[in-house]
Amino acid sequence: MPTPMPDQERPSTLQGDYNPAESSGEYKLLYLQSLVAEKAYKAITEFLEKQSKYEIASLLESFPSQNRFLIWAQVPESIKGEVLAELDFDTRQPLLENVSSKEISLFTQDLDAQDISEILDTVTESVRTSVMATLDEDIRVQVNKLDTYADWEVGSYMDPDLIQIRDDITLAEVQNWLRENDDLLDDQSQELLVVDQSQQLLGLLSLVDLIKHDQSTLVSELIDTAITINDRLDIQDAAAIFRSEDIRFAPVINSHGELVGQLNGEDIMEIIQDDVDSTMKNLAGVSQDEELFAPILTSAKSRSIWLGINLCTALLAAAVIGQFEEVLAQVVALAILMPVVASMGGIAGSQTLTVVIRGMAMGQIGGSNRLWLLNKELWVGAINGIIWAIIIAIIAQLWFHDMKISAVIGFAIAINMTAANVAGISIPLLLKRMDIDPALSASVILTTVTDIVGFMSFLGLASVLIL
Fold first, then answer.
1. How far is CA 466 from CA 163, 321, 402, in A?
2. 8-state DSSP, 233
3. With 50 as the cut, is the pLDDT of residue 438 above it?
């Protein structure tokens, strides 16, 4: 940990004291960058004390790795555990590499099971075992429960620490219990989970009903139906349920109907954001694990894989062009116009692909609507294809004054744009059926299809009409 320096002049790179009223993320980043540049350790600590755990985590992820250690050393000890739980895995791991199990135990002593599980997923097995031994029995049981689930299952995201009441007690007894345990309720709580003696979930008790009804009334008389989620359900399917039902939380039950946890809206929002980030990276051929400030060699390695795949598809398209070497040699205009065909097809296909992958992520595509969408995209591609075929044919005519060349480019554009739209919906649907993430490889396949169809239609028509 760096040794704090004596008080010094305010950083020259950002004149003026920190203004807490300025909530802009960019302002906070620029201010912290200036403090780091001046190595103003005391000022960094004072600045971080005014930030939430979410803001500190975001700021840490906005710096290259060498600066993160400097900032991390100044994070107040009382919130280091909370900050660690908010960091991405790749950011958290280097910060914990040389941290002892004793220090990690101090970080985690006031955290809930979800946050502790996040942190312990990053450390070695020996450190994990040491930290687990220091946890309270209830927390240790909850952490172990979370670790029994796969990464994609609802159970790994749920909160196992529940506020639950029995159905065979009165409202007065519930209120007395809540007064004695008022720290259990947060500001967002509006319903209590109701279970029977065998831990079977029965439903919800509204806090409004708890207050307005006769206090001698049994809980069982006021139970509302709950929308439940199975602990083994795919988390993406759970997110779709939250969206469609417009709910803030949902009780999580196992296959026997027993209440095992609660899935909260804030967790779903985080999942949706992670899914958006993952989809954007996959569409661009970037590894899901690559973060913005990843080391140079790590980024180069992860991207080179997809660049290699793209090279193979480009060579395939080049091989198609090679079959029409004779016609290209005789008509130079074709070589000039050929990229236009591939480009228009690629853009048309990418538009459809983006809309379809988003629809899949939202759970909107399935069953009979797939055929409807296929038919729709066929017509959208045909209409746009004809419109732009006419426009480009006119441009080609004004440019080269050759009706045959204009006809070739026009027909090729119409064919390729129609095929691109159909491919834009067909490819992700086929990949989904094969249990392959469409966002991961659909764009590469689409580019290959539009290039090959575009070049074959353009050069094939040229061979027939011009030679």
1. 78, 16, 10
2. S
3. yes
Q: Which residue has the higher pLDDT, 23 or 157?
A: 157
Cα 303 from Cα 366, distance rounded (Å): 32
CATH 1.25.60.10 correct for 25-152: yes
Helix, strand, coil % over all residues of the chain, rounded to 5: 65, 5, 30
- Which has more confidence, 136 or 270? 136
Distance, in Å, from the CA atom of 37 to the CA atom of 28, rounded to the nearest integer, reads: 14
Span 282-305, pLDDT tens digits: 555 555 555 556 666 766 666 666
Locate the domains of the chain by residue range.
Answer: 25-152, 164-280, 296-465
CATH top-level class of 296-465: mainly alpha
User: What does the CA dihedral 211, 213, 217, 219 come to, rounded to 10 degrees?
Assistant: -50
407-440 exposure pattern, b = at least 16 Cβ within 10 A, e = fewer? bbbbbbbbbbbbbbbbbbbbbbbebbeeeebbbb
Cα gap 147→120, rounded to integer Å: 10
CATH 3.40.920.10 matches 164-280: no
CATH fold match for the domains 164-280 and 296-465: no
Report how far apart the first and last C-alpha atoms of the chain are (Å, whole number). 76
Q: What is the pLDDT of residues 188-235, one digit of tens each?
A: 567 888 998 888 999 899 888 888 889 999 999 999 888 999 999 988
